[in-house]
Amino acid sequence: MKIGMIGLGRMGGNMARRLMRGGHQIVAYDRDADAVAKLVADGAEGAVSLDEARGKLDSPAIWWVMLPAGDITEQTIDAIAGKANDGDIIIDGGNSFYKDDIRRAKKLAEQGLHYVDVGTSGGVWGLERGYCMMIGGDDATLELLDPIFDTLAPGTGDIPRTPNRADGVADKRAEKGYIFAGPPGAGHFVKMVHNGIEYGLMQAYAEGFDVLKGKASDKLPEDQRFELNLTDIAEVWRRGSVISSWLLDLSASALAKDGHLSQFSGHVADSGEGRWTIDAAMEEAVPINVLAASLFARYRSRVDTTFGDKMLSAMRYGFGGHVEIPQ
Amino acid sequence: MKIGMIGLGRMGGNMARRLMRGGHQIVAYDRDADAVAKLVADGAEGAVSLDEARGKLDSPAIWWVMLPAGDITEQTIDAIAGKANDGDIIIDGGNSFYKDDIRRAKKLAEQGLHYVDVGTSGGVWGLERGYCMMIGGDDATLELLDPIFDTLAPGTGDIPRTPNRADGVADKRAEKGYIFAGPPGAGHFVKMVHNGIEYGLMQAYAEGFDVLKGKASDKLPEDQRFELNLTDIAEVWRRGSVISSWLLDLSASALAKDGHLSQFSGHVADSGEGRWTIDAAMEEAVPINVLAASLFARYRSRVDTTFGDKMLSAMRYGFGGHVEIPQ
Amino acid sequence: MKIGMIGLGRMGGNMARRLMRGGHQIVAYDRDADAVAKLVADGAEGAVSLDEARGKLDSPAIWWVMLPAGDITEQTIDAIAGKANDGDIIIDGGNSFYKDDIRRAKKLAEQGLHYVDVGTSGGVWGLERGYCMMIGGDDATLELLDPIFDTLAPGTGDIPRTPNRADGVADKRAEKGYIFAGPPGAGHFVKMVHNGIEYGLMQAYAEGFDVLKGKASDKLPEDQRFELNLTDIAEVWRRGSVISSWLLDLSASALAKDGHLSQFSGHVADSGEGRWTIDAAMEEAVPINVLAASLFARYRSRVDTTFGDKMLSAMRYGFGGHVEIPQ
Amino acid sequence: MKIGMIGLGRMGGNMARRLMRGGHQIVAYDRDADAVAKLVADGAEGAVSLDEARGKLDSPAIWWVMLPAGDITEQTIDAIAGKANDGDIIIDGGNSFYKDDIRRAKKLAEQGLHYVDVGTSGGVWGLERGYCMMIGGDDATLELLDPIFDTLAPGTGDIPRTPNRADGVADKRAEKGYIFAGPPGAGHFVKMVHNGIEYGLMQAYAEGFDVLKGKASDKLPEDQRFELNLTDIAEVWRRGSVISSWLLDLSASALAKDGHLSQFSGHVADSGEGRWTIDAAMEEAVPINVLAASLFARYRSRVDTTFGDKMLSAMRYGFGGHVEIPQ
């Protein structure tokens, strides 16, 4: 199929390459002419404007917008919609908030356009491993686009089949690494929760390794201290333990490079998905202590001290005359 | 009554004074001769050794041990027990772990001695406001000591009576500010949970003030920032709001002195009680997310960064090539 | 002053009464004619419509809207604005979301109207104790309305003055129980955080009492069980302890009525403020583990089991063949 | 090598079988004669008593005790020690608390005996996948036992090698699935933290799936509800996503069998390791909000309502006249 790839950053560029390798045609556009030139060198048709891109696409046109979440995505979708013909398809492959998807899909439907949201996991590893995709949209449009997703997805590969998964009943797509999750917004919603879980998993490992590291503390009685080899512990847990995972593989790799992780300051960023997951849970009245605590740990990692901590010190001083402990 | 006060620090000294004002006699002992001298100046009989103190006490002797928790309390109780006569009473007024009380009471009972544990809240304010006491021991001993507790307690004062509290049914002692909580250990257990709650209350205020403070952040859209006067907010909440409390009074006082709390670094200590409360909850399988999070916030306040934070950074770098945000 | 009180429920009716006692005049309107009649009997002028109310008010008219948060408040403010003259003042005394206040104030300002938001704590106790108020609006309007707030507020009463609070420097209003917190929205923002803190305080007590109650559990070794008298414990903590508070007073009263709280099922509701506080903290990147856990505990209280719990059981069965424990 | 396997339950029996397949000899003992008979049928020498077992072992004797944690393990180790010769080795392969290991190792060392603690992950899957082992003991003893661990471990298999792991520098054992973690106790300590992490990972998935499930709730506005296929979501996340893991594999399998998990009540047990991890973190002053919240979620899953919840209801009734919401 012929796809207009709008946005040729690390994600968009590699997706375009994987699609071309899979036999699809790419019309490539980016504000950065160099990015376009590189993709043209790899076999794409280039475009210097959305108008030119439109002219090179089929009808219905398939637009894959792969831009950072936020205003730029919104504006680009608006611009494309302004040039679109009835039946054209706009795919947002970024990290949009799912309520924005719902709103956009309604608005575009009034114009006769189709909107598809694709949440992608796998990050920079996608060109090599394939992209795990969670997709929202109307049924007919998703069916039409199926060959595109099939190419981008990892495929079944050598990951063992899940026991209990019945042939003929279960959707094959999930086993290839993509799902049609539901109507517009459902794709990014599932991806959002994926990231919420990701935060929780990461924090669980982080706390565990913190406890291992802390066991050497000279605050402990001498006969209860252990100097543990975190590098080997991460490695051994990859091998048959209950907590083996891809995040553990990454941890093992980082620790193999430097068991002290000295290059990292530990000021941890968070993106919208973690926060939106908490919001969604609050709308549903679902308790999510772990996912929330994982987000808060990142906030805390980025400040030296909080005003709240000072309040605690002030109260302690007030009722007990306690002075603070030196750090 | 005649009481041997062992340990004349801020707490022990003031308790002795309050007891003397209430008509009791004090035999005062401390390793620090100056502390003894000061109390003698206030009307106590001094002693230069436990032996001398023993000689000046009645039979049964009443010993009130008021020392920092830990080895020194244990050793002092052992030393007193070594000199005690059948029927003597040893009161631990410090912050001992309640399981130590249970153990000690059993051991002393075999010697014919009575053990009483008194958990005290009110800290440095006790001389003026009276001491709120939670007391464990055998019934007969507690009855015998009742006049002592009655003197130390705040009394009913001008605190309004609790609605629904029936005369003649409910124990008057609670309304005077002390309770016989149960057998040995029960006093310190109730005090321990008191401190666990205290941590939670403090952290709730701390987090709320942090959110108020953060509302001025330039990360927020300009039309959604407020520069709030925390000093006045703490004050107004003292006046008819649902969250008025003594801890809020203390907060208001600290903020009235300096709305930025600049003198405090925010490295917050914790004592055994917070941790023991978590332990007790785990033994009972009671979920206590708030009390635990309050304790952990104090741990976190005392370090710049955790190894766990570095783990998060390392994993993010691993799967997304994310570099850390500068602080 | 003359105030149009729109909404004569428990809160609005009592506020109107307190204002009249303080010498103000009330024009009373409610959809429920009986509610109007009752207030007329207490000295108010009645109105059967907003139009009639407008006719009875001075210029600028002062409207106090006291309705449940949500659509009804929005619609009523719109309706009033449609009839308003330049310079009129609309006060929202309900529990609106502060971002709605910011939006409304901007819109009304374009019409030449003034908008004031008042967050109130003290609930059903306000008629007797006075209303603790956190107020947002433009300076001139708040100054104009000052006599109204002064009447509604508790006044300094017999609450001891905060140490360190300097005469002549500090705003007297806070000591009377109300503050001008900032521009429109600031009042409800401060009230919102107040409720967030309230959740945290309540949960801290709840967890502590849970640990006390659980100490009688027959899961514990027999010599480590205590049957504690929760009624007396709540009472004694009111008397000089660090954790005395109004919420503890209420707890003591409830426990004095029934130490088992048998009439309560423990399905705990939450209102918008708790959730909005989490949202605000996330916008500011402030960690609030305690406030969030307090909200989540309420969600959890309202369901028998979560799907998440079943997931845990399923995983345990998967890796260990563990069967669930019977409840 | 020749090993006395004491305790032939699911774990001990299969370990013995794996050892025999690897060329080792087993002297098998269990209180259950049938269990012994089965293992004899598989090639082991049987023993009807510890004495008989001792007689059939070499010198130094190697004892592998594989019993449920607690008193029975302690007693068995004592019994074996009572019959042991200088230089004999006792291995505790169960789930003992690491402080018990430290204590035992000291005591046995005084008798000239060696103590080794082995924490094992992989549960019922070990016979097939091999046992991931974390081992504590003195260096010489661990070296001596290396062939045993090598046989029990999974081996490198087809798990890809960790990038950055340098040949010749890094310990090969970790890549085969076992480590010498440190002195006695270190094995069970690492295994304990492993389980703490496991709780956190499980809870992160559980909460995420809860949010997915809750998105169909009719509490939400109709245009914001999704009926998501949890079975396919779990499957797709196994395929190239950041959150792929063995626990997710198990979840996918359970959901493939029944997307509603109807057979599970969701009353989730916990074993000692989760609690001990919290204890260890508190001793080290390491904040572990996620690991603790994961444990508390299990406690909460096992009760319908908590007394704390009733306290919240009672307070709300007290300050606002709020009645509880029906469930």
From TrEMBL, chains A, B, C, D:
Domain named 6-phosphogluconate dehydrogenase C-terminal: residues: 187-322
Pathway annotation from the record: Carbohydrate degradation; pentose phosphate pathway
Listed GO MF terms: NADP binding; phosphogluconate dehydrogenase (decarboxylating) activity
Keyword Transferase: no
UniProt EC number: 1.1.1.343, 1.1.1.44
Enzyme class: oxidoreductase
Matching Gene3D superfamilies: N-(1-d-carboxylethyl)-l-norvaline Dehydrogenase, domain 2, NAD(P)-binding Rossmann-like Domain
UniProt similarity note: Belongs to the 6-phosphogluconate dehydrogenase family.
PANTHER family in alphabetical order: 6-PHOSPHOGLUCONATE DEHYDROGENASE
NCBIfam families for the chain: gnd_rel, PRK09599.1
Name used for this protein in its record: 6-phosphogluconate dehydrogenase
